[in-house]
Amino acid sequence: QIRILKETISLLLYSPNVILQGTKHSAVAASAPLEHSHRRRLSLHRHRERTGKEGQVLHRSKRGWVWNQFFVIEEYTGPDPVLVGRLHSDVDAGDGNCKYILSGEGAGTIFVIDDKTGNIHATKTLDREEQAQYTLTAQAVDRATNKPLEPPSEFIVKVQDINDNPPEFLHGPYYARVPEMSNVGTSVMQVTATDADDPTYGNSARLVYSILQGQPYFSVEPQTGIIRTALPNMDREARQEYDVVIQAKDMGGHMGGLSGTTEVKITLTDVNDNPPKFPQSVYSMSVSEDKVSGEEVGRLKAKDPDLGENGLVSYRFIEGDGMTVFEITTDTDTREGVIKLRKPVDFETKRAYTLRVEASNTHVDPRFIAWGPYKDTATVKVMVEDADEPPAFLATSYSFEVEENAHDGTVVGRVHAKDTDVANNPVRYMIPRYTDVEQFFSVGPEDGIIKTTRPLDRETLPWHNISVSATEIGGHHQDTKVRVNIKVKDMNDNAPEFATQNEILVCENASPGKLIETVSAVDKDEMAHRQYFHFSIAPEAVNNHNFSLKDNRDSTASIYVTRRGFSRMTQDVYFLPIEINDNGNPPMSSTNTLTIRVCSCDSKDTILSCNVEPYILPAGLSTGALIAILACIVILLAIVVLFVALRRQKKEPLIVFEEEDIRENIITYDDEGGGEEDTEAFDIATLQNPDGANGFLPRKDIKPELQYPMRPGGHPVANTVDVDDFIKTRINDADSDPTAPPYDSIQIYGYEGRGSIAGSLSSLESVTTDSDLDYDYLQSWGPRFKKLADLYGTKDSKER
Questions:
Q1: Cα-flanking dihedrals φ and ψ of residue 616, to 5°?
Q2: Measured between alpha carbons, how far is residue 627 from residues 146, 599, 624, 635 in Å?
Q3: Which one of 168, 446, 526, 800 has the fewest beta carbons within 10 angstroms of its own beta carbon?
Q4: SS3 for 586?
Q5: Which of 382, 475, 469 is nearest to 421 (CA)?
Q6: Residue 672: which residues within 8 A CB-CB, separation 6 or more?
């Protein structure tokens, strides 16, 4: 059942917007937009209040007012909290047992509820631009048990917008460009402002654009913000930049609305609307006559206020008497016309030139072609200045000829130079030494006549290229040089000779009339037309019976064999003198010897060998083979040196022992002495160490540091002592000798001793005679004779 609250009237008085919503269990009062819904709901409230006063209650089963949102004005700054609305439930009897609970966005912080009355207040100032709405949930519960009396209901509190935000240009300041001379209404750019207020409510966000600064040159469309030109023929050369201020105002531009401004810097871009113009109509320049081609004479510039390619200017001569002498180009950096010399000028010939120069734009805008012409002209006067010039030769170069072997002082030719200045000073000639190092020529200092200083040889140097210098006498001593080419004419002063000096090979079995070689000749002199060499055998060899010669009359000759067969054993080389005549003027001849070598050939006349073969074969050994042989020899020498060095480092004995005991070896001698009694045939002392004869045995592997004197007392004579005593004496000497080797070494002696029971060890007699000697006794001689006993004793026993 819905009850109409008395507080509704007070709520209507407080807020212009009232909404009543409820169900069969509850009634809600809240602020809402006025408009037609407000009037409809307000009339419903009054109707229900009137029926209530009459004591009538309306019952509607399962149907109630639909509600889901409240409204609150933003930016409220009153002293008390703003009443948003009131909640009331049918189960609330007013005894305080019903408790209202509020939850959701901002509940408890922004929005608070009176748990007894259900009034909802906003405790803080709300800003719609920060948050436009809040979603809350309301519920009635039992105060004592906190049990829900009704199901929770969700509703929305919307923040109602007010005009509290001015328009803003987020992308300002702006920069724009528009061509100069644009038509009125040409679009420059569009500016756009934004308003944070609600565009769906009222006119808070409805913007209107206007121009505060920039009239009368520009205008702006109020609704779109498009800036357009408002004045025709705006000239960039007069003014290039404009500062425009644009304003955007909300509330449709009405009074009380908020506004924002932005700056727009508009630049006029250039177009070719100005022709080039010379600042003056006549230009005066001067050039010295000593300037060379390509040098600059002067500059002039036609001014064009346009920029870039619109201001490019080209220059050209259109008339004048110096169009072939001068040329004009354009300096792209400075846009100046540069006048240069095309060819040198001469003060004495012409002293002034007049030229007409035209300057024109290279790029013309067809929109402004009617404003033309885009060109201008000026007059240039060039004065030629006199200069002290060096002498000038009448020719750029000279060429002369001189006979070969001509005597010194022969005239070669003459050069001539003169002073081109008005003074016409005399000229002195000379030859720079660096052009004629060996001084073959001389020149007359006053007349310029060139002469030879010695005879010239064409075969050594056929051409002489020298320079002659002419210096002005007086003035600044300026000089100039000219090239002189001198050709030495040939004379027949060289005899012909063989073209090659190779030997001719002929087979031993060559038959008479066989052609063995065709010879030719050369001559250092120049050959005249139809001139050829003539060949003949020298008079001293005309009667030879071995070879003949045939002149081919084409500067060659053929050599033929006139005898049958040759023998290398008899004569292996023949010399044939040949006389060569060049038929020149005067004729020159020489005798050249042709060497013919006899060789061995097979049946097909293929040469097998010649006498020179032993000398030729080594030449066939390649360089690589020689290098390889030398490398092998070097490696072998290095190995030998390394081996000797290692042996010395280890200090090995000079006598190398084999692994087998030396005492078990049999030493065989090819010479047999005269026996034990023969003391005259061989001196046993010679078998002794000659260095130890005086009691001093030097070491062979090292140099002794101290020299010991010979010990007193003599050694027993070998001829008077037994072998045993002899050996003991030698062992004692070796042991007590500090210079003897410190290691074991073999000592060889050729003395058997006197009265040996073995007799002679020679078996020469046993080979030729029948010997019945028994060698079994060798077994009792000890281990030294074991080898001998095995050889003889065993053999004899087997033979027996």
A1: -85, -35
A2: 120, 32, 5, 12
A3: 800
A4: coil
A5: 475
A6: 762, 764
